[in-house]
Amino acid sequence: MEQQNNTAKTTGNSISTYVNKIPTGYSVGNYQGKKYGISKTIFNKGKSVKLYGEELGGNNFVSLNYYLTTTKELLKPCEMPAQKVVHFLKNVQL
Questions:
Q1: Positive/negative CA dihedral, 37, 94, 92, 12
Q2: What is each CA distance from 19 to 11, 58, 75, in whole angstroms?
Q3: What residues does 29 pair with on adjacent strands?
Q4: Whole-angstrom distance, CA of residue 94 vs CA of residue 86
Q5: How far apart, in whole angstroms, are the C-alpha atoms of residue 93 and residue 3?
Q6: Within 4-81, where are the H helices?
Q7: What's the pTM value of the predicted model, to 2 decimals?
Q8: Phi and psi of 47, rounded to 5°?
Q9: What is the spatial distance between Cα 47 and Cα 67, in angstroms, rounded to a whole number?
Q10: pLDDT tens per residue, the chain (94 residues)?
C-alpha cells in the first residue's frame, strides 16, 4: 500500500473492490485465524463509508473511513497505519 496525499493506491485492485466486498450493516469475518465483528455504514449515496472491525473475544480492531470523489479514492485509517487497514480489507474472509 502506498499512501500519498491521502489517496488510496494498491497494486492490482482499487481499495473500493475490498471495501465493497464487505456487506453493509453487521457481519462476522475471519482474519488471521480470529473472528471479527464488522460494522459497515454507508453515507452520501455510497460516496463515503465507515468501517469498524473488532476482534471478538480479543482486543484488536480496525477502523477506517473511505471516500470516493470524482477524481480519487481516499482511505482514512483511524489512529492506525494504512498498511494494517489494507491488509485487513484484502485478507478478511466473510
A1: negative
A2: 15, 23, 10
A3: 36
A4: 16
A5: 24
A6: 15-20
A7: 0.86
A8: -85, -10
A9: 6
A10: 334 345 565 556 889 999 999 999 999 999 999 999 999 999 999 999 999 999 999 999 999 999 999 999 999 999 999 999 999 999 999 9
